[in-house]
Amino acid sequence: MSTTQSPVTSSFKPETHVLKDDEKEVSRTELIDHETFDQLLEMDDDEDHDFSKSIVLNYFEQAETTFDDMDKALEKKNLIELSKLGHFLKGSSAAIGLTKVKESCEKMQHFGNMKDETGSNSISEEDALIKISNLLEKVKSEYKEAEDYLKNFYSERDNTGES
Q1: What is residue 8's DSSP assignment?
Q2: Domain tally, the chain
Q3: Beta-carbon-side half-sphere exposure of residue 3 (alpha carbons within 13 Å)
Q4: Full residue range of the structural domain in which residue 98 is found
């Protein structure tokens, strides 16, 4: 079995990179779904990552705005808006492969609908607000972790001139 360095290193090329089984499991469940992210990278021109980088940077802007909107909706105890915002950010996160953020946003969507994290059992408005308050801090932390990872990924490409 051939293995290469982790995708954070400058030797990463999506068409040749092979993750070890344990790396795949950790990276997929913990931060990035590399199959999804690799599909995004495949849309880039051969010599640059301008297309995928622009999508990721646009996502960063959307996420920051959405987090601000979530803070305001939580302050107003607007569960319907929190559910909508969770749904929105879930989709954007899934599109670029941010597994942790996507999963937390799905939970927020459920809590905003006064359901438990699975979406199957009802919870009180008070419980929903408490859960969302705790979850919002967690998802912001997960987002920051993913943002750092992706900024590092693109920074290394810019510094080495690799595609």
Answers
A1: T
A2: 1
A3: 9
A4: 21-150
